[in-house]
Write a structure and sequence with these properties.
Belongs to the ubiquitin-activating E1 family. With 1054 residues, the protein is of the alpha+beta class. It folds into 5 domains: 6-27 and 198-328, Rossmann fold; 37-191, no CATH class; 379-537 and 806-858, Rossmann fold (3-Layer(aba) Sandwich); 552-657 and 664-789, Orthogonal Bundle (Arc Repressor Mutant, subunit A); 866-1051, Ubiquitin-activating enzyme E1, UFD domain (Structural Genomics Hypothetical 15.5 Kd Protein In mrcA-pckA Intergenic Region, Chain A). The chain has an 8-stranded mixed beta sheet, sandwiched between helices. It has a 6-stranded antiparallel beta barrel with strand order 4-6-9-8-7-10. Strands 25, 26, 27, 30, 31 and 32 form a 6-stranded mixed beta sheet that branches. Helix 19 (619-652) packs across helix 20 (676-692). The protein is globular, with a radius of gyration of 36 Å.
């Protein structure tokens, strides 16, 4: 009442309930929190509906305004949705700021045509004007229809409707003819429409919710929420009657509780649409009473554990209900009144907390039992990561009493240090902790909470470069691995370790209000690596768009980060220092780069040397360097582009600056009164260069401006470019002049590097507001936006985008971590080793922004079975391995695999390194090859494979047959003899390896060379501790099909 929302979250033993009431009229302005779509217009045409053209709500013959978009809209944009128009040019500028409704544009297509809109050719065709696209589809439609009519087939001609997701119909006011003036520009921004919802009170919904939502959808469909709802009402009834809540583990109270529940259920039964103990199937109430023999034990358990609280449930409820508080503002969709979750498998069969009664663990012990508490104290847990997730998990482990017994340990590792931006969600840290290591700081804090906690904090990365520390002994001594990571590569690595050592893995992740969690159980569930998640950016922007034709603020931000900051502040000093410190080494590494990268590196090094020759490196030099970039990036390069594209327009006779191609305008400059935006760029840029050259900053803006004016900086004279090259969509690569690269190499080879001034790389750091990084990116972004008449971006938006800041909320983190804490309790109970383990555990997928329908838990997927295509082992999972013990020869190893599992081994290679061959069947074949001179003739067997291996041999053999005695013949004979020796060496090396120990064959190919001394030492250190090597095999079956075996663990010493 009175506009006040009522929210409730309660944990009653192994049950949790959430209630949300925002009153009879709650306005939601943003129901999902997703960013609105900003879509660039690239064309506009007026079309007639009819034929194959279909627009919802339009009649045949109606005229519609159809716009073409530079990219596809997503499915959230529906018929009748509102968009706002912006950035319209010329006669259409009056539409800016107006909101209009949109409709989808679709075409009829024959079903048999099987049009694939993701096909490259189709994508290119869809870039054409809409009238041309319609004409192309019409031809296809007519062709298939004529074929159908000619075939004499019965029935209707089958067709389907295809939505073109880069087209929209705008319902604009006024005559449509005015849109014929469209040339370029235009943005369409989706608009979120407010919705109003009505909510009932707690008292009303306690009765009027017949089948309350459960997080477990299977339980909800079976009506489990109804008994939980009645139980909660019964607890309130018990309190009203007794003046207290049901006692912990009180059987007497529980019996009274059950009677109250029966009474409430019977009373509600008489009310239409009420919640009572009835049978529910597939979410539908049946009207028949539930089986009380099954329900009464549930009610008894609810009562006896009513006053118990579990750490995991408290974290889950705290995060979820805190997010509901925010929804009072109209942001996000509230939970649909009620949400319940129940975890009966956590309850101890024996009951009671035993010796733990009266201790800090009394509540938990009363639920899981004293034996599980003892197991909890003995746990050995490896927590990987100590950010937002890691802090929550450390809190949970400390409060649950994990790793507090003799021989137990909690190992936490994280290489990162604490940053200011972490403080909003990594709650263990304070301002005074900034710059300190995350792991050691967090460990000290939770140790203070629970002095019994046996915790070890490390600052090591977990991966292929730390296997000398995280070795077999380390992994074999763990009970489980617990990921708190934020990248896929590290997750995949820890998952591979868990697969190898047979350890359970707890996994979770968050993105704003969204989160997920997974439990991976040895031999039971699919693994993380069985999935397809990737860090790759699926929506990369074409470089030609960033470089020459931006049309969105995002394009300007990306270019400022990649080209301006990345090249000037990071790449250039890196290359210069490599050149200055090690000239020969620099040129050796340079050859490994692409030509475009080579040219860029050489140009930038030349620029750094030129700067030193011109004058002393001081702050004035930094200003001059900044001004050079200002002129190049925002004035002269713009002149070049406009000149070249205008020339293209003259040559072709076709308008060039159309659609998303905006004709840029150069930045302004006045040496006596520099424009404010130019001064801002010079200020940020010059101070960045001051860091690079280790000269004092000039932070006083007044003094800085005076210094700039005193230098009387002038834009260099400009002349039209000679090459006339412009990057286009069809030619997106950097164009390089190979001769120019070689000339620069020759010039720099002769430089005496001893006198060069050292510099330092300005590594990007988004959270330090004193380092000028975000200032530089913000002004660089907006100067480029000004060039192209694109809306400027706020500094905060530039920081989030350029800094790749992933939205993270304390609410989401607490909520998902609480659910994972509950899964940890199940592991401690050993439920993964009992009957039907998959029916005991939950994975979760939750979006706190979109209400209870998006708060789901579900059973883990069973282990993925892979078919081997081999007769003696038909299938396996990622958890399986082929174990071979005892040192044997490589030949014996290959023969063992072939006889044991069937098929033919083509290759053996170190696990994860397919390019390295420990064994290759082609090498066996080479043992029978011949290259020899016999009776003056060359004997080559088999010819084609030998000639492929030694191409020069073919010519020598051919010439030998026609050349008489003499020096020339001897030269060809010598070539053949040399090849024969080479073949014999190959045979000898392979035969030695093939007949020798398999472990030595592995070492011969896997061990780094002497030139990589550090890597070689690391390899040796790891292998000294290991008694085995891990191998993979490429196998073919008897039919010649590729077959598959699990990983091979070849244990060659005890």
């Amino acid at each position: 009442a009175g506009g006040i929302a009522f929210l409730m979250a309660v944990n009653t033993g192994v049950t949790a309930s959430i209630f949300s009431d925002f009153g009879p009229k709650h306005v939601i302005t943003d129901e999902n929190g997703e960013p609105t779509q900003m879509l660039a217009v690239s064309g506009a045409e007026v079309l007639t509906v009819g034929g194959i053209v279909n627009v919802h709500g339009a009649k045949e013959g109606d005229k519609v305004l159809t716009i073409t978009l530079a990219s596809n809209y997503d499915n959230s944009l529906q018929d009748g949705d509102l968009v706002s128009l912006d950035d319209m040019r010329g006669a259409l500028s009056g539409f800016n700021g107006k909101q209009v409704k949109v409709r989808r544009f679709s075409l009829k297509s024959p079903s048999d045509a099987k049009v694939d809109l993701n096909d490259t050719g189709t994508k290119e065709m869809l870039k054409s004007p809409t009238s041309q696209v319609v004409a192309n589809f019409s031809k296809q439609y007519d062709f298939y229809k004529k074929e159908f009519e000619a075939s004499g087939k019965e029935g209707k001609f089958k067709e389907r409707e295809i939505n073109l997701f880069n087209r929209l119909v705008l319902d604009v006011e006024g005559p449509l003819d005015q849109w014929s003036s469209y040339q370029s520009g235009g943005l369409v921004n989706s608009v979120k429409q407010a919705i109003t919802k009505q909510y009932q009170s707690f008292e009303e919904t306690l009765v009027s919710t017949p089948n309350p939502q459960m997080m477990d959808q299977e339980a909800w469909m079976a009506g489990e929420g109804s008994w939980v709802h009645v139980a909660l009402a019964s607890a309130l009834g018990f309190q009203e009657q007794k003046g207290r809540w049901p006692g912990l583990q009180s059987e007497a109270d529980a019996k009274e509780f059950v009677e109250i529940a029966k009474g409430i259920s019977e009373a509600n039964r008489a009310v239409e649409g009420a919640c009572w103990l009835q049978k529910i199937e597939f979410t539908m109430p049946s009207g028949e009473p539930a089986d009380l023999e099954k329900v009464e034990p549930l009610l008894m358990r609810y009562s006896m554990l009513f006053q118990a609280e579990l750490t995991g449930f408290c974290a889950f409820l705290g995060g979820a209900i805190a997010q509901e508080v925010i929804k009072k503002t109209g942001k996000f969709l509230p939970i649909e009144q009620w949400l319940h979750h129940d975890e009966p498998c956590l309850v101890s069969a024996s009951g009671g907390g035993g010796a733990y009664g009266g201790t800090r663990y009394a509540h938990q012990a009363s639920v899981v039992g004293a034996d599980v508490m003892e197991a909890m104290r003995r746990q050995r847990v490896f927590l990987v990561g100590c950010g937002a997730l890691g802090c929550e998990y450390l809190k949970g482990l400390a409060l649950m009493g994990a790793c507090t017994g003799s021989g137990s340990k909690l190992i936490v590792t994280d290489m990162d240090t604490i940053e200011v931006s972490n403080l909003s969600r990594q709650f263990l840290f304070r301002q005074s902790d900034v710059t300190k290591p995350k792991s050691t700081t967090a460990a000290a804090i939770v140790k203070g909470w629970n002095p019994e906690l046996n915790i070890e904090a490390l600052e090591k990365g977990v991966g292929v470069t730390s296997e000398d520390y995280f070795d077999d002994q380390f992994w074999s001594g763990l009970d489980l691995c617990w990921n708190a990571l934020d990248n896929v590569v590290a997750r995949k690595y820890t998952d591979r370790c868990c697969l190898w050592y047979g350890l359970p893995l707890l996994e979770s992740g968050t993105l704003g209000t969204k989160s997920n969690s997974d439990v991976f159980l040895p031999g039971q569930t699919k693994s993380y690596n069985d999935g397809t998640e990737s860090d790759a950016n699926e929506n990369q922007i074409a470089m030609c768009t960033l470089r020459s034709f931006p049309y969105l603020p995002l394009h300007c931000i990306e270019f400022a980060k990649q080209a301006y900051f990345g090249d000037y502040m990071e790449f250039a000093p890196q290359q210069y220092e490599a050149f200055r410190k090690d000239l020969p080494g620099f040129f050796e590494r340079l050859d490994a780069m692409g030509e475009a990268e080579q040219a860029k590196a050489l140009r930038m090094i030349k620029g750094y040397i030129k700067l030193q020759k011109a004058a002393k490196i001081d702050f004035v030099a930094c200003i001059r360097c900044a001004f050079d970039h200002y002129c190049k990036d925002f004035i002269t390069s713009i002149r070049d582009l406009v000149y070249n594209c205008d020339e293209i327009e003259k040559t072709t006779g076709k308008p060039f600056w159309t659609g998303t191609k905006r004709k840029p305008i150069e930045a302004k400059w006045d040496a006596k009164s520099p424009p404010p935006e130019a001064l801002e760029y010079l200020y940020a840029s010059a101070n960045c260069y001051a860091f690079i050259w280790n000269v004092p900053y000039v932070r006083n803006r007044g003094a800085f401006e005076k210094q700039v004016v005193s230098l009387d900086l002038q834009v260099p004279a400009w002349s039209p470019p000679a090459d006339g090259k412009v990057a286009t969509e069809e030619d997106d690569e950097d164009k390089v002049d190979t001769a120019a690269i070689e000339a620069m190499k020759g010039e720099l080879y002769g430089v005496d590097t001893k006198g060069l001034v050292p510099c330092q790389v300005h590594d990007f750091e988004k959270d330090d507001d004193t380092n000028f990084h975000i200032d530089f990116l913000a002004i660089g972004t907006n100067l480029r936006a000004s060039n192209y008449d694109i809306k400027p971006s706020e500094r905060s938006h530039v920081k989030v985008t350029a800094g790749r800041i992933i939205p993270a909320l304390a609410t989401t983190t607490a909520m998902i971590c609480g659910l994972v804490d509950l899964e940890f309790l199940k592991l401690v109970k050993g439920l993964h080793k009992g009957e039907r383990p998959l029916d005991q555990f939950f994975n979760a997928n939750v979006n706190l922004a979109t209400g209870s329908q998006a708060m789901n838990v579900f059973r883990p997927e069973p282990a993925t079975k892979r078919q081997t295509k081999l007769p003696k082992m038909t299938e396996f999972t990622s958890w399986d391995k082929v174990d071979i013990e005892g040192e044997i020869s490589l030949k014996a190893l290959v023969e063992h695999l072939q006889s044991q599992y069937g098929g033919t081994v083509k290759r053996l290679f170190p696990a994860g390194h397919e390019k390295l061959a420990v064994f290759d069947s082609e090498s066996v074949e080479k043992l029978n090859w011949k290259i020899e001179m016999k009776d003056g003739k060359a004997v080559i067997e088999p010819e084609e494979p030998v000639y492929k291996a030694w191409p020069q041999l073919r010519t020598a053999v051919e010439k030998l047959s026609v050349v008489g005695e003499g020096p020339t013949r001897k030269a060809f004979e010598s070539q053949i003899t040399t090849c024969a020796k080479s073949l014999q060496k190959v045979k000898d090396v392979f035969a030695s390896r093939f007949e020798g120990a398999a472990s030595e064959a592995y070492t011969a190919v896997a061990r780094p060379s002497d030139e990589e001394a550090e890597k070689q030492q690391y390899f040796d250190a790891v292998q000294r501790k290991r008694k085995y090597v891990a191998l993979q095999a490429h196998v073919v079956n008897g039919e010649g099909e590729d077959a598959e075996l699990p990983l091979i663990r070849y244990t060659y010493r005890k």
